[in-house]
From TrEMBL, chain A:
Residues 368-503 form the GGDEF domain. The keyword Membrane applies. Keywords: Membrane, Transmembrane, Transmembrane helix. Residues 282-334 form the HAMP domain. One of its GO terms (biological process) is signal transduction. This is Diguanylate phosphodiesterase. One of its GO terms (cellular component) is membrane.
């Protein structure tokens, strides 16, 4: 900034100096020209005057009777004439004279052997100044005719007188004109005379001299001279010039001193301007630069406390404005921060902050122990649907309040979204290290012992809590949350209130998650197959039915047990596709076997979701008509819990199916908690006794009593019974003894692919037959 | 004056066997009549010497020589009376007659003898403008042209050298001197081949009808 200013200033100074210099130089040149002209006039005047005086004297002399007499008698008496002329030459302060007769023959002369020819004389007789060289000297000559009788038309003699040129140009004239004067004859390049010192005059003669109205330069003895010229008479027929010269330094002295003064003034002005620029820079530029730096900091999100101090009004105003702006940004940032990091409903930190908190805690306390809990409100959707969303929100708020009453180790609560909450327990100190995650989980669970009063309703709320511990389970936020989630889902599955993460859970769950994403593709790709396990009609000792069991032969994982993907498919909703596929495949197989005269009915497992989905009856009707099958060839096995989940819809669906003629069976009977009343309502044809009661039936009395009771119960309700898990003959015989309708299990056969099943089937009947 | 000429004339008549009238007309280069020019005729054959008897007058009137040009035969006397009330200092440095009549008045000065032919230029030392000429010729036959540039002579027939002179006629003009033969009445016409010299003081501005010689 200062540099630019300085350069600009320098430029201005240079331009100014240049212009002033040019102007003054031109002015000086004009003055010098004028001086030369004036001096030339002065010199010309002086020389002309001298010549004129000489001429006047000559004219008077020419009229002198005595001279006339002396000339008239010169033939006889030259000495008298010579003497008289000498006397007159002295009077006229002249240096040379001639007296010529009418025929230009010299009568007397100051010079010996002098010849003055007619031509020279005729030149002399013309007006103006005349220069003449004689004997190595130059003279200013004047010639006057003498007539014996004045009025005569005839000249009788000539009087010529000359003054030495060097006498004309003396130091008086030099001091008068302030110039060195030289007389120059261009035709012969001769310096007639000069006021310069002899050696300079000689040097001048060796130069090429320009005769022009303008000024010219030449160098004499290493000194520059400016000179001008002006005509002053003639020598013979050619003109003679005066050269007026002055030293250049002298001529432009005023210019130089003016420029020097100007440079000094401008330099001082420049320094003052620079100082003011620096002061300005100090008072404005520097605070402004500071403010710019501050603005940059603010833009980077770093807030500044210290603002530059300044006395300049503009800077102060700007400082205040930037301060206000920063405060505004801080204010808004706070708001945005709150919106971004807090849950609006509960006022708790949100998921983002929860994540950040974990990350920060890990970063700040790398050695500490960190317990992360994710908590899910059980059946919140149902509660929400039942008591309205508004009240559901109110409940969430109350849960948040309740969480805040936690008094254990320092805890960070957050709402992760929906009915999910997160808790971080930072076990920083030695005591904390000992903190038992399960104890903490129990403490949290304890918070929910008291029911929540929502608009006069007392709601008992259960929660599922997953726990993960840093650094044991995971060393980053994402890992910890995943672990906690896995633990939480696992405890949901197992109906525990809380679960601590275990690596197996993860392995399992990771595979499960990945399987789910593959399941749909697997259906299309034909990775899933139906295996058929025969059911023996005990009384007839005939295979009348087979249960369809889904087998997934995964290209990488190989055989995948239904338990590993069916529950998950139920959770994700993929089960519908699986059920539809199974039904379709079963119907296709039925049709296939009908054509082979294998008279069988097939049982397909139906999940709770399939029941709730009211499309199932329509789909089955479509299949039956498509394959032209009797409805009673199809048995649907439904678990107790499937019906319990949404009994209303489930029953509706079951009734529809029963009315269609489809055989309905309750699977895993005995493990659920179905009430007898409920069972009575169920429009089913048979009960399928869970294998838990059958596997050890031959030896276990309790199981025998249980199964006998169940079969008896079913008979009383006009229901058929199927026992699964029959693995030995004793069991089968026992079942026969208590009139159980059907038996299924490894004693007969494990589930087999269709082709093998056919072989087994023919084999069985051939043996039995 | 008239007396002198009459006498002269009679003498000629008497001495010559046959007389002729010579009429001369002189013109300038630009064809103007040339007045006051002196024309004199010198017989080529020697004449019987005749001495002029009378004294010629060169007067000074109103600070001018009068006449401006005076022609005399050699050996004539000329008196320089001073008709002005002031003094004059008449002089001549001409080789034909060098003289000086220092400051005089009236008839103080004695007549001077002019014994050499030639032009005598007269001046006054105290009046630079005064200029007069005396032409001394070696013949009795001389005259000045009138305003019409004419003059005439009564001569004995014969051969003459004719001269024309005037201070304004340049000396190097042609035919200023020539031989003529007069045989019976003759008219001659001359024209100058060169311009006249400047008329310095307008000496020629004489009254139209005055002829100094008549």
């Amino acid at each position: 900034m200062a540099l630019i200013f300085l350069s600009l200033l320098t430029l201005i100074v240079l331009v100014t100096v240049l212009f002033v210099w040019r102007a003054t130089y031109n002015h000086s040149t004009e003055q010098l020209q004028s001086h030369v002209r004036t001096s030339a006039s002065v010199v010309a005047e002086k020389i002309s005057n001298t010549a004129s005086v000489l001429r006047s004297n000559l004219i008077i002399l020419a009229k002198d009777f005595s001279i006339k007499q002396l000339i008239a008698t010169a033939a006889d008496d030259k000495k008298s004439l010579y003497s008289a002329m000498e006397n007159f030459q002295a009077r006229s302060l002249a240096d040379i004279f001639w007296v010529l007769d009418a025929d230009y023959v010299p009568l007397v002369s100051s010079q010996d052997n002098s010849v003055m020819d007619e031509n020279a004389l005729s030149e002399l007789r013309q007006s103006g100044l005349h220069w003449y060289q004689h004997g190595g000297q130059f003279y200013l000559l004047e010639a006057v005719a003498l007539k014996f009788v004045e009025s005569s038309v005839q000249n009788n003699a000539w009087l010529i007188m000359g003054i030495r040129a060097d006498r004309l140009f003396d130091q008086k004239l030099v001091s008068l004109t302030d110039m060195q004067i030289s007389v120059y004859h261009p035709d012969t390049a001769t310096i007639l005379t000069s006021t310069f010192a002899p050696q300079l005059a000689t040097e001048l003669g060796s130069h090429t001299i320009v005769i022009a109205p303008t000024l010219h330069e030449l160098t004499l003895a290493d000194e520059n001279y400016i000179y001008g010229s002006s005509q002053l008479g003639r020598w013979g027929e050619s003109p003679v010039y005066t050269l007026l010269a002055t030293q250049e330094t002298k001529a432009y002295l005023s210019t130089q001193s003016l420029i020097e003064q100007l440079v000094i003034i401008l330099s001082v002005a420049g320094v003052l301007a620079l100082i003011s620029a620096i002061v300005m820079s100090r008072t404005i530029t520097r605070p402004l630069e500071d403010l710019i730096a501050i603005a940059r900091k603010i833009s980077l999100g770093k807030y500044v406390q210290q603002f530059p101090q300044s006395n300049t009004k503009e800077v102060v105003t700007l400082t205040a404005a930037i301060n206000d702006m920063q405060n505004g940004i801080i204010e808004r940032e706070k708001e945005i921060n709150h919106l971004a990091f807090f849950d609006e409903l509960t006022g708790l930190p949100n998921r983002i902050q929860f994540h950040q908190h974990i990350t920060r805690s890990i970063e700040q306390n790398i050695a500490a122990k960190l317990i992360v809990l994710t908590m899910d409100v059980d059946r919140f959707k149902e509660i929400n649907d039942t008591i309205s969303h508004e009240k559901g929100d109110h409940l969430l708020q109350m849960i948040a309040q309740r969480l805040k009453t936690y008094t254990g180790t320092k805890a960070f609560f957050a709402r992760l979204g929906g009915d999910e909450f997160g808790i971080i327990i930072e076990a920083l100190n030695e005591e904390g290290r000992k903190a038992d995650p399960e104890a903490i989980a129990q403490a949290v669970v304890a918070l929910f012992e008291q029911p929540f009063a929502v608009d006069g309703l007392n709601l008992d709320i259960d929660v599922s809590i997953g726990l993960a511990v840093y650094p044991e389970h995971a060393i980053n936020e994402q890992g910890l949350l995943q672990c906690a989630d896995i633990a939480m889902y696992s405890c949901k599955d197992q109906h525990y209130r809380y679960a601590l993460y275990q690596p197996e859970l993860n392995k399992h769950s990771v595979m499960r998650l990945s399987l789910m994403s593959e399941l749909k593709g697997a259906l299309v790709a034909g990775q899933l197959q139906l295996y058929y396990q025969p059911k023996l009609a005990i009384a007839d000792n005939k295979i009348t039915t087979a249960e369809c069991l889904i087998r997934w032969i995964h290209p990488q994982h190989g055989f995948i047990a239904p338990d590993d993907f069916i529950p998950l498919a139920e959770q994700t909703g993929a089960i519908r596709h699986v059920t539809h596929w199974a039904l379709n495949t079963a119907c296709m197989q039925l049709k296939n076997w009908q054509s082979q005269n294998i008279t069988l009915s097939l049982a397909v497992n139906i999940s709770a979701m399939d029941l709730v989905d009211m499309q199932l009856p329509a789909y089955i009707a479509k299949l039956l008509s498509k394959y032209d099958l009797a409805a009673d060839l199809l048995t649907l096995e439904v678990t107790e819990s499937a019906v319990m989940g949404n009994p209303e819809n489930a029953l509706k669906a079951l009734h529809t199916l029963r009315s269609m003629g489809v055989i309905l069976s309750i699977d895993d009977f005995g493990t659920g908690f179905s009430s007898m009343a409920q069972l009575k309502k169920m429009p089913v044809h048979e009960l399928k006794i869970d294998k838990a009661f059958v596997l050890d039936l031959a030896n276990n009395k309790d199981d025998q009593i249980m199964v006998k009771t169940l079969v008896s119960l079913a008979q009383n309700l006009s229901l058929q019974t199927v026992a699964e898990g029959v693995e030995d003959l004793a069991t089968l015989e026992f079942l026969q003894s208590i009139n159980c309708t059907k038996a299924q299990g490894y004693y007969l056969s494990k589930a087999l692919p269709a082709a093998q099943f056919e072989t087994w089937y023919h084999n069985f009947h051939r043996v039995e037959a | 004056m008239q007396k002198f000429f009459l006498l002269f004339f009679l003498t000629q008549l008497n001495s010559l066997v046959s007389a002729a009238e010579l009429h001369i007309e002189l013109h300038t280069q630009d064809n103007q009549a040339m007045p006051n020019a002196v024309i004199y005729l010198t017989p080529t054959k020697a004449l019987s010497p005749s001495t002029p008897h009378s004294v010629a007058i060169m007067d000074q009137i109103d600070r001018q020589f009068s006449p401006h040009i005076l022609v005399v035969q050699k050996d004539s006397q000329i008196r320089f009376p001073n008709s002005d009330s002031i003094k004059h200092h008449v002089y001549s440095f001409s080789p034909a007659k060098t003289f000086e009549l220092q400051l005089y008045r009236g008839l103080d000065a004695n007549p001077l003898l002019f014994s050499k032919t030639g032009i005598v230029e007269l001046g006054c030392n105290i009046h630079d403008w005064m200029l007069g000429y005396v032409l001394v010729v070696d013949t009795p036959y001389f005259a000045k042209t009138n305003r019409q540039g004419q003059t005439q002579f009564d001569l004995v027939e014969g051969e003459y050298r004719l001269n024309i002179w005037h201070p304004r006629i340049k000396a190097n003009s042609k035919n200023l001197e020539q031989i003529i033969v007069v045989n019976g009445d003759t008219s001659l016409h001359f024209q100058l081949d060169q311009a006249l010299l400047p008329d310095v003081n307008q000496y020629e501005a004489v009254p139209a009808d005055v002829n100094d010689y008549e």
